[in-house]
Request: fold
Amino acid sequence: MLTQEELEFKSTQTIYLPLFNQEESNKVLEQIKSLDYKDALVGDTYKSGFEFNNKLDIKQKGTRISKNSQLPYNPEYKWIYDKIVDVVSECNKNFFKHSVLEFQAFQILEYESGGRFDWHMDMGGAHPYTKRLISIVVFLSDKNDYEGGQLEFMPYLKKPLAMEQGSIVLFSSHKLHRVTPITKGIRRTLVAWVYSEVI
Reply:
């Protein structure tokens, strides 16, 4: 007999739960101030990009408007990596049930007013995107510090994610999702992906 949590996951392929408390979230926000942020790209440096993006016209200018920076794996940030990897591993054990979990460096995203990311999947037709299994988003900003920026899924969840500061959402990387336009303030998140092999 499946539990209610298992039934809900089977339907949505999405897990949402608390991760950092307010003090920890603010510590992360303070630590990431010194990172070097650049305009985020679709497909980044991989030449062939996402095959499915041709159908969704996601390569059109302005479909992704945000800045990102890699979160270094060093003693200063190790506690962040450790906490997230522990939670993701436990969720995988109970829900996703993948046999192999490989992580790349985490990223910090900043969405300012006008920022958004239209409908897309994190799993794509080009290496290394074909190897993505689980997508991870950690909400770092207090949701009172910005307006808009809702993380939405297709098909829609029964109710919108609360996106409380310090919460984490994990979902299957083939799941269509978007970030709606920011209308005020700055929305900061940590994002990462689990891969089926070392990238």
User: Anything to note?
Assistant: Residues 36 and 170 are 26 Å apart (CA to CA).
